[in-house]
């Protein structure tokens, strides 16, 4: 939190705030009523003390960044790092005491409606108020399920700050003493529905709940998954569930057996094996000794060997050179040189972003950087790296493309479009690009969508290779995220397309307008 605020102040649009005294002198005002000293701000920015909610809101005001953008970033990052079982936000804020007593009822009614729209800020307020009332009774009881299902539906089709606000709200509901059962059931039911199109997030969010049902459903998706994406989501959920001891002792042998099976199966998704090895590496010591003995077979694979040895996707020395090169380019791309500030956090985040075997760790590192002025020069550097054939052929390329989902703007969208349609690309690069197009900044026109879909459909019909089907799935998701109903209609009625593509298009078209459009706010 301190790094996020300090970097935004130092590298923000005005040089005025380089002087800490000037910033402290201007801090009183807006939403912050108190006088604030240089010493206090220094303690916030160095992490000596936690920054209060209203102070972050004041940073937003002085730095002229969108309202609640830094708050949403902090909420999201703190939630992943914090222990589960607590519903209130980690970034504590007081409820608005001036609000009418009927405000909670009003928000519950809106969330229970099939046509009313809720903004991300309203989801934040609703779940914050529910968290402050752990024994809250909502009638009818079915309303808990209605709210959970609506919130989950909006979360999986949202992006950017609206997604962060909803994901945090869903995490609060998953930890609420009364609402958690409805939230867990909503995730489990959607994960079991083969017509659903967003499985990874639907299952992985169960890591926010320590309820026994959540662990049971995660284990079920590991052992008997709805599909590979649901299984991958269960692996991601298991990272935190192992960390916080959510699995019962009786469940551990089954978990270990599934993980061993996945590490030996080279036919699975490219990202499943490294994550399974990483989970085995993180097992309690009483289990890991036997597990490590059985993992000798993965030593022949250099990537899996690095994961087992050090919990990373590449050799430390080689990856350090990549991180140093990118960090230097990002810092040199900033508008001003600050001689007294040497950023030691940025290289750590870049290393996690590119070389962690856990997708969530990579994603949260990218989220942190996306909330700083480093975002644009980092995106530009990734685009430059991805123009190098040597980088495209390396294992780090998909991680760079993943990161562009969060830091990339319209300029980088052109790069992603090119990677999707270029022939001769490694399959992981093409698939990563197709999966990223729904999140990278900017807009693709119908000409691109038509050409990209036609190309991969033609290649799929010729070869039936899974990579082309995966690319088509990613493109369909991108069309859905773009809310391009006309293109979705074409995909749904095109009988030459894989059945899963037609089903995906139908799923998007069946979502209510309140969910689709509301999730953008």
Question: How would you describe the overall organization of this protein?
Answer:
This protein has 521 residues and is mainly α. The protein contains 30 helices and no strands. The protein has helices at 2-10, 20-27, 38-45, 53-63, 69-81, 103-112, 120-132, 142-156, 160-175, 180-192, 200-204, 212-223, 228-243, 252-264, 272-281, 285-294, 302-310, 316-332, 346-355, 359-370, 375-385, 389-392, 397-407, 410-421, 427-436, 446-463, 466-481, 485-493, 499-510, 513-518. Helix 7 packs parallel to helix 9. The radius of gyration is 23 Å and the shape is globular. The model has no long low-confidence stretch (mean pLDDT 93).
Give the helix level as a range of percent: 55-70%
Which regions have little confidence, pLDDT < 50, spanning 5+ residues? none
Radius of gyration, CA atoms, in whole angstroms: 23 Å
The counted number of beta strands is 0
- SS element count, helices: 30
Distance between the termini: 25 Å
Average of pLDDT: 93
Strand content: under 5%
Taken from the alpha-carbon principal axes, the silhouette is globular
Main β-sheet: number of strands, strand sense, barrel status?
none
Order of helices and strands: HHHHHHHHHHHHHHHHHHHHHHHHHHHHHH
Q: Would you tell me the structural class of the helices and strands? A: mainly alpha
List keywords for this structure.
521 residues, mainly alpha, globular
Quick summary:
The chain is mainly α. It contains 30 helices and no strands. It has helices at 2-10, 20-27, 38-45, 53-63, 69-81, 103-112, 120-132, 142-156, 160-175, 180-192, 200-204, 212-223, 228-243, 252-264, 272-281, 285-294, 302-310, 316-332, 346-355, 359-370, 375-385, 389-392, 397-407, 410-421, 427-436, 446-463, 466-481, 485-493, 499-510, 513-518.
């Amino acid at each position: 939190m301190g790094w996020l605020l300090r970097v935004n102040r130092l590298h923000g649009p005005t040089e005025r705030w380089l002087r800490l005294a000037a910033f402290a002198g201007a801090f009183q005002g807006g939403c912050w009523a108190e006088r604030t000293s240089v010493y206090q701000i220094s303690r916030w920015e160095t992490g000596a003390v936690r920054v209060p909610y209203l102070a972050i809101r004041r940073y937003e005001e002085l730095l002229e960044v969108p309202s609640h953008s830094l708050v949403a970033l902090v909420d999201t990052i703190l939630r992943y790092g914090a222990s589960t079982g607590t519903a209130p936000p980690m970034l504590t804020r007081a409820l608005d005491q001036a609000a009418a007593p009927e405000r909670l009822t009003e928000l519950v009614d809106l969330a229970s409606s099939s046509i009313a729209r809720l903004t991300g800020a309203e989801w934040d307020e609703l779940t914050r108020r529910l968290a402050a009332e752990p024994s809250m009774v909502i009638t009818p009881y079915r309303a808990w399920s209605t709210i959970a299902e609506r919130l989950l539906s909006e979360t999986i089709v949202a992006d950017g700050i609206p997604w962060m606000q909803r994901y945090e709200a869903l995490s609060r509901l998953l930890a609420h003493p009364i609402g958690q059962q409805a939230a867990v059931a909503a995730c489990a039911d959607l994960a079991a529905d083969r017509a659903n199109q967003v499985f990874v997030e639907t299952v992985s969010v169960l890591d926010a709940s320590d309820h026994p049902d959540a662990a049971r459903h995660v284990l079920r998706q590991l052992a008997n998954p709805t599909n590979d994406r649901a299984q991958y989501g269960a692996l991601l959920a298991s990272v935190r569930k192992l960390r916080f001891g959510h699995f019962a002792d009786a469940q551990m042998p089954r978990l270990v057996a599934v993980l061993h099976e996945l590490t030996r199966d080279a036919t699975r998704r490219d990202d499943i094996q490294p994550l399974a090895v990483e989970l085995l590496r993180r097992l309690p010591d009483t289990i890991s000794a036997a597990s490590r003995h059985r993992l000798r077979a993965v030593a022949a694979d250099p990537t899996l060997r690095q994961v087992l040895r050090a919990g990373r996707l590449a050799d430390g020395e080689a990856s350090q050179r990549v991180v140093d090169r990118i960090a230097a380019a990002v810092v040199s791309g900033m508008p001003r040189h600050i001689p007294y500030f040497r950023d030691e956090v940025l290289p750590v985040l870049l290393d996690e972003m590119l070389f962690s075997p856990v997708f969530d760790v990579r994603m949260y590192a990218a989220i942190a950087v996306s909330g700083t002025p480093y975002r644009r020069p980092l995106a530009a550097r990734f685009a430059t790296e991805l123009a190098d054939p040597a980088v495209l052929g390396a294992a780090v390329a998909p991680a760079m493309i993943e990161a562009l989902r969060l830091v990339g703007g319209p300029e980088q969208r052109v790069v992603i479009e090119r990677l999707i349609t270029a022939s001769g690309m490694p399959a992981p690069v093409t698939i990563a690009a197709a999966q990223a197009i729904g999140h990278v900044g900017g807009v693709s026109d119908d000409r691109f969508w038509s050409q990209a879909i036609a190309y991969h459909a033609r290649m799929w019909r010729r070869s039936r290779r899974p990579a082309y089907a995966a690319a088509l799935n990613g493109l369909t998701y991108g069309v859905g995220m773009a809310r391009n109903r006309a293109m979705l209609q074409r995909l749904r009625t095109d009988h030459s397309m894989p059945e899963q593509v037609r089903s995906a298009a139908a799923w998007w078209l069946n979502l209510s307008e309140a969910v689709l459009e509301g999730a953008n706010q």
